[in-house]
Amino acid sequence: xxxxxxxxxxxxxxxxxxxxxxxxxxxxxxxxxxxxxxxxxxxxxxxxxxxxxxxxxxxxxxxxxxxxxxxxxxxxxxxxxxxxxxxxxxxxxxxxxxxxxxxxxxxxxxxxxxxxxx
Length: 118
Known about the structure:
Elements: H1 2-22, H2 28-38, H3 47-59, E1 63-70, E2 74-81, H4 83-109
Antiparallel strand pairs: 1-2
Helix pairs in contact: 1-3, 1-4, 2-3
């Protein structure tokens, strides 16, 4: 179960940083909905999962937050990617691409007929 949680946290971190980098400053509910819609509901992350990642990223100075007044009384916390977050995003993207390529090689090796295996 720890592997699943670590994997989910890493993927969530990658997605959050990508959204903040590409879409711009966003709040948690908006990020969660964006992930659900653009993954065609394949990824349904709870607000708690995203908040946990946001706290970690903020603590590591990858992102910063600011509050904006919405309406007359309500405030909303927006998150902004920092330079360290962009560097982390590059690293995570490279790792993700390498891992998915390796997994794809293994999975497709079973679908290809290799004359050396016979």
